[in-house]
Amino acid sequence: MTTTDKTGQRSWLQDMKRPKRGVPEGLWLRCDGCSATVFRNQVEENLNLCPECDHHFYVSTATRIKQLLDPDSFEEWYADLMPGDPLGFADRKPYKERLAAEQKRTGMTDACTVGRGYMRGRPLVYAMTDSAFIMGSMGSVVGEKLCRAVEQATEKSLPLVIVSGSGGGARMHEGIISLMQMGKVSAALARFRKARGLFISVLTNPTMGGVAASFASLGDVVVAEPNALVGFAGPRVVQATCKIDLPDGFQTSEFLLKHGFIDRIIHRSQLRTELARIIDYCAH
């Protein structure tokens, strides 16, 4: 029964019984750095950085291209390369189904995107691995795209920038075919170096496994974003295997800079400018 006042108008008591409207899903993010709850739009407008602690959130391939390369300058190569299932692999579900689900969810054919673009007017070959697609693990397509990108940089005498965002190493679903990609890409980079090409490797959070153990560590200049996790096996695996307490900040980019594994740490807001500066410096 609707409650009305003496004038016949709907009572405010009735309005109080309306169900509360919930907060739209995805409006807020929990920061992994400071645990603050932050507004998603504010984070995205701030280069995917936490406004409270400056934590560097994950950045998708499309967003990273917009952040680093000149507008509308990126020309993607080999977008039609599709992964196969040489082993007929299945764990919780068949590999073919996993690939189809990842492709539908991410809009990517695999974990790597390569092509040519411009960075502050400087032409270059650009490549990136993306942890959103099976943790950025390196299968046959990832290795083939990277190898072809390196060969194009060699042929065209262009600098090469590879941004690594891979929480996984060699993709177990493809067995030895996946493992051989480490050597294949490394060999292409050796030929690129022999041709006096410039390779800048950018490490982001995370860069792990076979990616960190191969091409990501072979740059003429190796830079990283702040507090990126970089290594082969994860800290918990290392600690459990070696039975020792690990140093503070073990496998972070700051720890690796201190021990000479990387050359510089560059804040995301300065990454485009500093990469262009490195290209200019090494060109002379």
TrEMBL record:
GO cellular component assignments: acetyl-CoA carboxylase complex
Substrates-to-products reaction catalysed: N(6)-carboxybiotinyl-L-lysyl-[protein] + acetyl-CoA = N(6)-biotinyl-L-lysyl-[protein] + malonyl-CoA
Keywords: ATP-binding, Cytoplasm, Fatty acid biosynthesis, Fatty acid metabolism, Ligase, Lipid biosynthesis, Lipid metabolism, Metal-binding, Nucleotide-binding, Transferase, Zinc, Zinc-finger
Gene giving rise to this polypeptide: accD
Similarity comment text for this entry: Belongs to the AccD/PCCB family.
Molecular functions (GO terms): acetyl-CoA carboxylase activity; ATP binding; carboxyl- or carbamoyltransferase activity; zinc ion binding
Known partners and oligomeric status: Acetyl-CoA carboxylase is a heterohexamer composed of biotin carboxyl carrier protein (AccB), biotin carboxylase (AccC) and two subunits each of ACCase subunit alpha (AccA) and ACCase subunit beta (AccD).
Family annotation (PROSITE patterns): COA_CT_NTER
Keyword Transmembrane helix recorded: no
Zn finger (C4-type) location: 31-53
Keyword Zinc-finger assigned: yes
Gene3D superfamilies given in the database record: 2-enoyl-CoA Hydratase, Chain A, domain 1
Binding residue positions for Zn(2+): C31, C34, C50, C53
Domain CoA carboxyltransferase N-terminal: 27-284
Superkingdom of this protein's organism: Bacteria
GO biological process: fatty acid biosynthetic process; malonyl-CoA biosynthetic process
Official protein name in the record: Acetyl-coenzyme A carboxylase carboxyl transferase subunit beta
InterPro entries: AcCoA_carboxyl_beta, Acetyl_CoA_COase_Trfase_b_su, ClpP/crotonase-like_dom_sf, COA_CT_N, Znf-ACC
Biological role: Component of the acetyl coenzyme A carboxylase (ACC) complex. Biotin carboxylase (BC) catalyzes the carboxylation of biotin on its carrier protein (BCCP) and then the CO(2) group is transferred by the transcarboxylase to acetyl-CoA to form malonyl-CoA.
Location of the protein in the cell: Cytoplasm
Native organism: Fuerstiella marisgermanici
